[in-house]
Amino acid sequence: MLVFAAKKNWVEFIKELENEECEGFDPESYPDWLLIQIESQFSARPVQVKVALEMMSPSTGKNTSLQLNMGEGKSYVIVPLVAAALSDSQKLVRVIVLKSLSAQMFQLLVERLSGLAQRRIFCVPFSRSLSVNSSKVQMYRDLMQECMDTRGILL
C-alpha cells in the first residue's frame, strides 16, 4: 500500500485500502497464501481469492472457464496462490504459458514462491518438434516425480 502511495498510484492505493486482511480465505487452511502475501508485500483482493478458490475447486464440480480484466492480478497474484495451494506432493502442478512469457513467469514464480513458501520451480520447455526416445521419457518422468515429491511447480 505504501508503495502505491509513494508512486502516487491512487487507484491501486484505494483498492488496497479497502481490502481487509485475509478476506475470503482462512489463513490456517492456506498458510502459504499468507506467507506469499507477506513476502511479496501485497494483500490478495476478495475477487482474486474467489477466483483462486474457484480455479482449485470449481463450484460446478466440472471444468470451468473464468474471466478477469487485464491488470486484475491473474499472473502476479492468482497463479502463484493456486500453484502453492495445489502443490502438496500428491499432484504434479503445472503452469503452462506461451514460450514468449516463460522467462517472465519463471522469474515471477521464483520471486513469489521460492522464499517463505519454499517451493522449487522446475522449468521444462517443451515443443512438439522435440524428438523423444525412451531415455528422455525416463528423464522427464524422474524430473516430474522429483517436482511432485518436493512440492514443486512445473513451468
What does this structure look like?
The protein is mostly helical. 51% of the residues lie in helices and 4% in strands. The protein contains seven helices and three strands. Strands 1-3-2 form a three-stranded parallel sheet, with helices on both faces. β2 (121-122), α7 (134-149) and β3 (153-154) form a beta-alpha-beta unit. The longest helix has 16 residues, at 134-149.
CA distance, first residue to last residue: 30 Å
* Cα Rg: 17 Å
Tell how many strands the DSSP assignment holds.
3
Helix content: 40-55%
User: Which residues form runs of ≥5 with pLDDT under 50?
Assistant: none
Features:
single chain, mainly alpha, 7 helices, 3-stranded parallel sheet, about 50% helix, about 5% strand, globular, about 160 residues
List the helices and strands and how they pair.
Elements: H1 2-6, H2 10-18, H3 31-40, H4 46-56, H5 74-86, E1 93-94, H6 99-113, E2 121-122, H7 134-149, E3 153-154
Parallel strand pairs: 1-3, 2-3
Helix pairs in contact: 4-5, 5-6
